[in-house]
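Co-fold these.
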Amino acid sequence: MGSFGLTVLLDGISYGMILFLISVGLTVTMGLMRVVNLAHGAFAMIGGYVAGYLTQRGCNFYLAALAAAAAAAALGAVTERTIYRPLYRKGELAQVLLTIGFVFVATGAVTEIFGAFPYPVVFPPYLTRPLDIGFRQYPAYRLFLIASGAAIALLLWLVLDNSLYGARLRAAVDNPRMARAVGINVSLLFTSTFTVGCGLAGLGGALGAGILSLEPAYALKYVVLFLVVVIVGGEGSFEGSFVAAMALGIIDTLGKYFVAEAAPYLLYTAVFALLLWRPKGLVPPRSLA
Amino acid sequence: MRRARVVAAIGHAVPWAIAVVYFFAVPSDLDFGTQVMIWILFAMSLDLALGYAGILTLGQAAFFGLGAYTAGLFAIHLSPDPLLGHLAAIGVTMLVGALTGAMILHTTGVTLLMLTLAIVSVLSQYANQATDLTGGDNGLQGIRLDPIFGVFEFNIFGKTAYFYALVVLFGWFVLARRIVHSPFGRSLDGIRQNPHRMRAIGTPVWWRLLAIYTISAAMAGSAGALSAHATRFVGLSVLDLLTSGTVTVALILGGTRRLYGGFIGATIYLVVQDYSAKISPFFWEFVVGGLLIATVLLLEGGLLDFGPAVLRLRDRWQAGQRR
Amino acid sequence: MSTTRALSVRGLAKRFGALVVAQEIDLDLAPGARVALIGPNGAGKTTFVNLLTGFLEPDRGRIELWGQSLQGLRPEQRVRRGLVRTHQINQLLADNTARDNLAIAIAERDRHAWRLFRFGRQWDRCCEEAQQRLEEMETAAAADRRVSELPYGEQRLLEIAIALSLRPRVLLLDEPAAGVPSHETEVIHQALDRLPADIAILIIEHDMGVVFRFAHEIVVLAQGRVLARGSPAAISADPRVRAVYLGKSPV
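Predicted complex below.
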């Protein structure tokens, strides 16, 4: 039982780490810019495809993952300046529509270029082997996800908590008007945050390709999961989305082990119930509390 | 005044005249015309909820799919009568619309959006799992239908299906027009703009939203039933999030709050999909997505707003010249 | 209860966490009363209006409208009973014409707004009444213009006209002249003077000119509690009121 429980826990945490890595950018941008961004999954997908393309041609996996992050970040910077900026003044409906349009474009483009079938990222051989972790053999890939996810989460937490950038970001999330009044360059803050958020999504798309497999439908299929992490964790709440991502990963894994058939729709039913119970998320953003 | 009325009457007659002319002009491709009308109806249902009442939903496919599966399953297991099956689909979607609407319509914004996404996801995952009921990936096959009124038989040429869709669409259109111009419709217009104001003049906002959401669900369910009957097949894609997305695209392309917006948008959408699919099977998503982005950024009122938008741009340009 | 009061508030209390926004507030409005509620910023005036109208739920206290408790009624139900408010910040339907704004309220009042399918005469009648009311307010010229294009003063008048069209028994006017440029305020004053005499009115106002011209009684709110009440003359002579309020912002 102990060993089984640990396996479930490891499975859930590694899944949750990927969800967190991809969603954290979304939670910050939704909290900061108040934009309903349904296209966030597209950035993760594009990162994943870049990594897939490079590794299939023999590129080093880690370099490919960095390239994925860079590509998604660059695309994020460009789109923030061009198509997202006019959205800040518009209503939620326009935001939903435009970002869906972006998803369609990305999906169409990916299908054109890479084909309609699942597209693998080639992981280094030592990641695809099981590893002896004392009580059993466990996939090294999942351990790698946990380690890298934890490292990035820690890094983000340190940056957000200790740097001037983090302080500005928190101030702007809590009170955008006040932030502008005290002279924070909100426009630059938006662009840089959006860029970093998209870069993290791209990285997550690349690293997590072994769990969330790449296919053209990726952008639309998984964005619901990412949004669930954001909404359940509370928009703009870094800690909240970490907790929500872990919970989602573990609950989904438990579901797959115990009620395999019903797991997918039970998950969404649970999300539905949770949103009705706590419409503002488990950890409401401070500005609303 | 009288002349304006004549012009308006002609304007109203145009789309229906086109539908009749199409029947005689393109008898070889009636299926396409039927598909267009089904999507017009689907887009119109979304216009009522999203366009007029401002209910931020991406869950409209839930009702389209539910209507399609109800009609299909009804024909297979209960009765091959198409009209009974259609009524059953409307009844089921109304019921589900009322129940889910009652739960979610006190929320707004992103939360509401997420709840509608969750509903569609639950249904689509369920349909995917319950292969015994839905046929899963293979879709629901073996739908056999009696002739409508015992006379008009569904056949491969699709004549019956075409007129069936046309009559159903016309019926819903007349109903929708009455609704949006009634005092009830005006109150929805107010709720979309400012729910707080409406409560302050005594409007039971939640009830009104529930009413229109239920009607909209029934309409989408009816479109789904048409789809199941016309093709005698229901695939998992009817419950797909992509279906919700595409009907939104169809509505927005044509423009919200016009009822006719769906006519233009759904037609353009299906034509674009048809043509660009000939270039490459997935190119349409690229084109349609690009159209949607351009519409949102440049044409707030959809393609029906194209003329006025060009005039506005000209005015702005001229104002710039003078300065 | 000896005489019927239009509005009777007893022991109304509300707090947000540690912040007390309403503390044991008592208030009576006789039929046809003209009472002004004044107080410095943050005194809890708008919170009080929100408590009365049901947009906020009080922690304690009773509110009665013509002897009937409003306990547990939602805002829209209170409006139906005759408790109507105007808003400090415009809450008009900006995309609609002035006439449509009024007609929508009238349709709601006459319970036409649940008619899903029948239309035509009813809506026309609502529009006719709306037109008439605009003429009474001397703003008929605005009828066909979109609200967002109207001068602010006319928007304020429209807000009052909408409230009146609901046939209120008690009317809460939340800073009816707020934000109106000085050359337009006289029109608002005249509109206030013309309000039907039988309606009990509570006006929340910063502008002492409006208060002294309009009100027969003044209630002073400070830090969520009633500091003083009395005739305008008595209030302006009250040293406590001068200290918290009048002293800070001279008339």
